[in-house]
Amino acid sequence: MSIEKRNLWIMWICNFIIAASMTMVLPFLSLYISTFGDFSAEYVQRWSGFIFGVTFVTAFFMSPIWGRIGDKYGFKPILIINGLGIASSIFFMGFMHHVHGLFLLRLFMGIVTGFIPTSVALIAKQTPKKEAGETLGTLQMGTVSGTLFGPLIGGVMADTFGFQYTFIITSLSIVLATGVVIFGIVEKSHAGRNEAKERPSRTAVIQLILQRRMLVSVMAIAFIVQAGLFSIQPLLSLYVSELTKADSVAFLSGLAFSATGFGNLLLTRKWGKLGDDIGYDRVLMILLVLAAVLIVPQALVTDLWQLVILRFLFGMAVGGMLPCITAYIRIEAPFELQGEVLGYNQSFRFLGNVVGPLIGGIFSGYMGISSVFYVTGFLFLLAFGLLWWSMKQSQAKIREIY
């Protein structure tokens, strides 16, 4: 087996462990906050959004820095630092008793939350451009598989062992994944290729991005998509509790989370391969429309099973968005700058992770959780409109040249 394939499958396994570990806590985050005191539903919803989103504030600033360091020194050391940092943060979350301490830990975690994005940069840099969509789709299957099983595992553990032990077990799982990186990953050196040119400054890299209209548009779309995806995430467990009278709310919330992941898992690689064949921008347009069509009916469900089915179908639609966006950037960005450019794209996604929960918290606090699904549908249509406009502008520019 080649080094590239070995690295791909090792990172697949590690991303599975990391994603599963990090999503274990998502279904019961709002429930965990409720144990800190006798708070109103509006208070819990608002702080769920703040605590969930604050991680991505620091991550927004750190992602390009990690990418630039990775381009220069390699991505393996960054994976190790991020893995151990995430594990430490989650471990101490299990010993918090007030929202402010949990808020600060999530804020700190944002500094080292780049394990999965860094793994994407590592694999993208070693992958030929013509295979980028399928390979990155394969890598995302590891992340999606972890996202699929993580909430279910977390829900079962929270109902069985309590919240504190779930945080502890989660942190130990991330340490295990970091150990696999230390002893398993072999990063090929591209020093000669990277040193052939003098490395551009950060300002020059930003100017390069701004000069390419479609590159800017794709990053903006990544922001809008993430804002849409994360607007409902912190509130889903509360929405599930409104649909069922069962006692095991944490487990059922995990089931609703996992339905999206399972749908995502089924088609992620196929969407990436289709992007290799017909173009990543075209596939992305199809997926944005499908996502908008499938998210709105979730506001109208009256039973949990209806929500689970719609979340499953929704997952099938959104599964190909990240591989198509990343593969497009892989094609457009110069080889020696791919880590940093992907880092800026990740910053846009992290910004969406911040804005999304804030939007969800604000709208749910004033208009109810159902309103968030309508807002999310609008965001996907907005992203579709931006992509359509950018493609038309690019085609017009090409006609002017030729």
TrEMBL record:
GO terms for cellular component: plasma membrane. Residues 7-395 form the Major facilitator superfamily (MFS) profile domain. Its main location: membrane. Keywords: Cell membrane, Membrane, Transmembrane, Transmembrane helix, Transport. GO terms for molecular function: transmembrane transporter activity. InterPro entries: MFS (IPR011701), MFS_dom (IPR020846), MFS_trans_sf (IPR036259). It is found in: Cell membrane. The chain crosses the membrane at residues 12-35, 47-66, 78-97, 103-124, 136-157, 163-186, 215-236, 248-267, 279-301, 307-329, 350-366, 372-389. It is a multi-pass membrane protein. The keyword Ubl conjugation does not apply. This is MFS transporter. It comes from Siminovitchia fortis.
